[in-house]
């Protein structure tokens, strides 16, 4: 029986590739911005986040003013840390509905995605501040909260509706209002 060299054995071990029976990565799920998912989306009740383990924790009273003050402070801090998330969520409205319910009104789904990134930071801080740990959150969409960016072109088009001669001048002189 011939003796094998230890280097040859080590090379053979390196050549062996282990394979799994199923993929290691996470399964694919449709994007939140998928058109087909939006078309098949059914009407849903407002999302409620309720944790049954919170029942035993303290629940001191907090006011609407407490909520608004902490939200403003949080936005100021967020503006310094992450301006992109701040710009996405600064128009959100938080209201105290009942003793344990806070309603978050947001303008769009994309803004809500940004809010979800920092939601736990804000509510953890707020719950500790007011010593009320049984807060549940409801979400509602208000499309009228969207901020429209008014460009020079949109202003011109608005004036052109009022005075059609401006449209003729634009066609004649090829004015550029960008």
Short description:
The protein has 178 residues and is of the alpha+beta class. The chain is built from seven helices and four strands, in the order ααβααββαβαα.
Structural class: alpha+beta
Tally of strands: 4
Low-confidence stretches: none
Helix content: 40-55%
Based on Cα principal axes, name the global outline. flat
Question: What would the average pLDDT be, to the nearest integer?
Answer: 80
N-C termini distance: 86 Å
Radius of gyration: 28 Å
Strand content: 5-15%
Spatially, the strands of the biggest sheet line up as 1-4-3-2
Main sheet characteristics: 4 strands, mixed
The run of helices and strands is HHEHHEEHEHH
Helical run tally: 7
Describe this structure in words.
There is one protein chain. The mean pLDDT is 80. It is flat, with a radius of gyration of 28 Å. Strand 2 (93-98) and strand 3 (101-106) form a beta hairpin. Helix 3 (64-81) packs antiparallel against helix 4 and helix 6 (152-162) packs across helix 7 (164-173). It has helices at residues 6-15, 35-40, 64-81, 83-89, 109-130, 152-162, 164-173, and strands at 48-49, 93-98, 101-106, 136-141. It is an alpha+beta fold and 178 residues long. Strands 1-4-3-2 form a four-stranded mixed beta sheet. Helices cover 47% and strands 11% of the residues.
